[in-house]
Amino acid sequence: xxxxxLKTEIDGIRIEENPAVVKQKSRDFFWYSPVLKEQxxxxxxxxxxxxxxEAEVIRVLSACxxxxxxxxxxxxxxxxxxxxxxxxGGVILxxxxxxxxxxxxxxxxxxxxGAVLAQIDRATRAHSGQELRLSPSTYxxxxxxxxxxxxxxxxxxxxxxxxxxxxxxxxxxVVTMEEEPRVLELTGEELHKVTHAYGTNGIxxxxxxxxxxxYEWVDVIVGFESFMxxxxxxxxxxxQDGILTKLISPIAAPAPFDYFKRHQKFLREGQSVxxxxxxxxxxxxxxxxxxxxxxxxxxxxxxxxxxxTKGLPPVTELSWNHTTxxxxxxxxxxxxxxxxxxxxxxIDLVAKIHAMIPxxxxxxxxxxxxxxxxxxxxxxxxxxxxxxxLEEIIxxxxxxxxxxxxxHRYTLEEGGMKQTDEVQLAFKREADPKGLLNxxxxxxxxxxxxxxxSDKPFLFPRLQRAS
Amino acid sequence: xxxxxLKTEIDGIRIEENPAVVKQKSRDFFWYSPVLKEQxxxxxxxxxxxxxxEAEVIRVLSACxxxxxxxxxxxxxxxxxxxxxxxxGGVILxxxxxxxxxxxxxxxxxxxxGAVLAQIDRATRAHSGQELRLSPSTYxxxxxxxxxxxxxxxxxxxxxxxxxxxxxxxxxxVVTMEEEPRVLELTGEELHKVTHAYGTNGIxxxxxxxxxxxYEWVDVIVGFESFMxxxxxxxxxxxQDGILTKLISPIAAPAPFDYFKRHQKFLREGQSVxxxxxxxxxxxxxxxxxxxxxxxxxxxxxxxxxxxTKGLPPVTELSWNHTTxxxxxxxxxxxxxxxxxxxxxxIDLVAKIHAMIPxxxxxxxxxxxxxxxxxxxxxxxxxxxxxxxLEEIIxxxxxxxxxxxxxHRYTLEEGGMKQTDEVQLAFKREADPKGLLNxxxxxxxxxxxxxxxSDKPFLFPRLQRAS
Lengths: 467, 467
Description:
The structure is a homodimer. Chain A folds into four domains: 3-94, Uridine Diphospho-n-acetylenolpyruvylglucosamine Reductase, domain 2 (2-Layer Sandwich), CATH 3.30.43; 101-213, Uridine Diphospho-n-acetylenolpyruvylglucosamine Reductase, domain 3 (2-Layer Sandwich), CATH 3.30.465.10; 218-304 and 313-399, Vanillyl-alcohol Oxidase, Chain A, domain 3; 418-466, no CATH class. The first copy, chain A, is 30% helix and 21% strand. Chain A contains 17 helices and 20 strands. Chain A has helices at 3-9, 19-24, 34-40, 54-67, 117-128, 144-150, 157-160, 227-238, 255-259, 283-292, 306-309, 320-330, 346-356, 387-399, 412-415, 422-431, 443-446; strands at residues 14-16, 47-50, 71-74, 91-94, 101-105, 108-111, 130-132, 171-175, 183-187, 203-213, 218-224, 245-251, 272-278, 296-300, 334-336, 339-341, 361-362, 365-370, 373-378, 381-383. In chain A, strand 18 (365-370) and strand 19 form a beta hairpin. The longest helix of chain A is centred in the first third of the chain and has 14 residues, at 54-67. Chain A starts with a helix and ends in a 21-residue tail after the last helix. In chain A, 56% of the residues are buried. The mean pLDDT of chain A is 96. At the A-B interface, strand 10 and helix 10 of A face strand 10 and helix 10 of B.
């Protein structure tokens, strides 16, 4: 890999070769998974390149294409599955410097891929009281390009579904990996080509996202005697069409008391909870509903005084992947899964699965709209013993009709639908004919004969060897 | 009925006794129903009283209570079931003069009951780019108080459900019908006491409603070969969580071509359609979805030139009860029903029912969120022959699991759930102990022994006799 030749070719563009920094920029939150931690801990790029604008991106891609150097794009590295990890080394294309918020209009924002979600919302709130529809729990640090390329939904999905749904991304500007890179504008049906493709088939240089009305969302925590009470409450609240919520997250004991340290003073040991973000104008209705449903409000930010809320993280940072993060900080043996509980049996399935795995699994649900219905994902915390037992737990879910989006795999297919995405594969043939973008992440490209029903994880042959 | 004594008591408050004007102010759109037309055509109040503020409302109610004079509140008279018709004469309390928009804040508006919906939206749009969540197709003329007291939902229900859902009304200020009227503020669970009670148990003097982001909604009409194609398309569109719509209304041939005269140039004879209002930021996604679904866009306001759109009514005025109105203008023998097609079988039920009644019924659906699910109401147009045949058609619906909200009845119960609403009845006992507010509309008050399962319409004994 002729990194020296590359440096000459891209002279004037910011680079970084300090091995410690390069290694740090080659990592994400893959270590949430003990499986990925073992497989990927040694991975590092050869060089980090930080373009300032699309013209520099084009120069880098052109040079790397000619020199046959792999390029792995990276936003701020908040992914959990090694999305931005350079499995065969080469260049980390650090897009964090391209962070401008370019244009705000009713219902729309245009920005560069490195813009951080919270930064975008600050700009759109100040401009016209608007905010993004969807964000991960890493809202304060995640970039919009990384979210579009490596995320799927999160806070706001109870109202808007996921990023894969038509309308939740408006336009992407994408540069191809060719000797003469092309710049494409994708809208409508074409967006799927590069959405959630981990940057394997194009580099996103501009993102247009829909906006919705911003409110001073109120954090509330509702306490329950049991996890299933919290789950049923969350399900019923999610189905209240007139109560505007942004987050509904039931979490089983002992997680709330044991892992949410700053909130411990509001909680009882052994208490399960439902985290809620509710719009201020829906508070009265929310409280009426909660009373009707027999929930006990243990924390309500609208009622809490400044001393009570001082130093408290927002409930967003107790939810989605942050739930697991807080558990990991207390107990490093915790890992997690990602489950879909299909509508309309979500509540029965949650009860059944959690009864089957009572001790190793701590329940955590996130209510969402999914294909037009209200249902829930699970992000259960798992007390990890062995990779085999983890596989067994996954099998128990799947045998009971609950698909797993496996967060212990670094490929698109194994973490997703376990089948070739023909649209994304075809676009890779067109936009990255040499297969240099984020190698090893798209099985369909690396090994067209791979059997998705085999129980064995895909092993990327050109995975960097541990030294 | 001592109207002269009343006039003395309320001296200084605006009144109207001209019989032609009083009769006009005693009517609504009850004549949509041939049944109600026959029953109620002669109804008239003795006097119209038009208070300017809550203090005048209190004076009127106090005087009427002492004198035993019935009081029927009226907004702008856009109801369809005689909601504001004074069955026993007395006073029409015309609240149209109390029309101030008092306060606008993020997510909220406070107004007087006579404020017209379009007027409220003009104020909230100008103030902060906000609009009401829900409105009837009579948006340009209906008052907010009348909508809350006599309506149920409409445009926007595909996103927010109905007025009966917690959170879709924030606060109501209500004056009781007592010698010393009390002023009550209702929020949360208590709102149900007077919501959709036709003013039978209190007079609304202030309304606080939730607001949502206003957009320059785009009117689109999608054409289909058959009504069921339009229905399936509407159902699938309604389930697109990322595409922001405000109206999804499939309407069967021959209605679009025959009844939507101004839009005829865009339509083919025999074409069924789906009317859609879509947010501008969702247009690309909407078009991609429509192409995927095989719909043919026959009118798209975002693409149409000024000559094409000149004089066209908005699609809102082709939808909900306006569909029937346009049919009636062309064919006075048309009437209608109101049906719920329960989730998840809505599409099969629509197909089944329409196949059973092929010639007399012209399909018209409105997609809504209902108790957390996406389903549709039907407002089928009916070629009216006899009251008996209409009853038979109603029976066919009910026998097949499709509840009818009968628009050919003037009572709350027969138009609604066909059972006593204990909360509203209890509140009437408290707030209108003499039973003077809008007499004859609440069966539970007039005849506690009434059998809702009898096939006979409730006949109010004190219904004014036709002269």
